[in-house]
Amino acid sequence: MSKIQEIKSYTPPILHTGKDWYIDFYAFNPVDGVMKRKKIKLNFIKSVKERRAYAKGCINRLSEKLATGWNPWIEQECGNAFLLFKDVIDKYRTFLAKMQRDGRYRQETIKSYSSYLRNMEIFNEEKKVPITYIYQFDKDFCVMLLDEVYITRDNTAFTRDNYLGFLKSFSTFCLNHNYLTQNPTAGISSLGRKGKKKLRNILPPETLAKVSDYLKNHNPYMLLASYILYYCFIRPAEMVGLRLNDISLKKQTIFVSDNISKNRKDGTITLPSKVIHLMLDLHIFNNPGDYYLFSDGFRPGKTKRSEKMFRDWWAHHLRKDLKLSAQYKFYSLKDTGITNMLRHYDVLSVRDQARHSSILMTDIYTPHDIQEANDLIKNYQGDF
């Protein structure tokens, strides 16, 4: 028998039932020079009906691969490749929940990935021939899903790239748990933002004045949140994680720890006097130091709230009452604050205040670990 014949030698896969359900077959091991048994256990599938259906599909798959020359001792494909696609999705959901509890993923990331995961399930269910096993989750499937999102549903390139980021995360999870031996997203590129400018939605001075007056009269605690976004550029998702102990009146700084910051790095931000005065007027520091700065009713408290409360109040109260355009979102205050501060101070001071790594590419040439308050910003008085 030639070497090629030896490598292709195998016995047909057979299902064995009883106390232990399993599929086995023999294939020639060229290293040892003998036929070696391969066994795939099936007892992890509880339902007998599902176990038989699983076994049938697995045997068909193995038979096709063996007939074309595949050898398990050469390729070393993991047995986990025959796990059900839906079961791996459930395992990934459990993984996401654990990452959220440990603070490894932001709440917004979990929310987005959970939505993408469900949409991927629906996409698969609506296919003429849905994939059943995890080994069928391949590059072709990923490309078809991305085309569905970008072309068929006519979403933006940004949305398509967000789906790609999710697929990369799911693929990495599968690789790390030996459900796959190759990355299905390898070679799939992002479309990027080329040719499309970011919409800044800058609030003009007269609109800022209206917003300021409205908040002073209707919700001064929301005004404080707006000040922190406008003057300190602290993201809403980070604001809800701030505690009073993170604020130093002596140093005139706010400390954003790595467990709440978007880039997972510690950051020290200068707190302008205007913001401090509002805090003192609202008696913020009469509360325990371990209280969240923004809790129920936007006031300090024990309960951590979702950053969604800022967006909702802005949209349903302020923007509605002032009859502002929908383009003026709560987050527009950050873009407006950065733009207006750049008109008064050097780009490096603003870059460090914003913890931004790409303003005029200054991050390449300058340090990013400012630990003291910036004297220029301490007494900064903006239009807001």
Automatic annotation (TrEMBL):
Which GO MF terms are attached to this record?
Answer: DNA binding
Q: What superkingdom heads the lineage?
A: Bacteria
A Pfam family recorded for this sequence: Phage_integrase
Q: Which UniProt keywords apply?
A: DNA recombination, DNA-binding
Which GO biological process categories is it annotated with? DNA integration; DNA recombination
Q: Enumerate the spans annotated as Tyr recombinase domain.
A: 198-381
Instruction: Establish whether keyword DNA-binding is in the entry.
Output: yes
Check the record and name the SUPFAM superfamilies matching this protein. Answer: DNA breaking-rejoining enzymes (SSF56349)
Name assigned to this protein: Tyr recombinase domain-containing protein
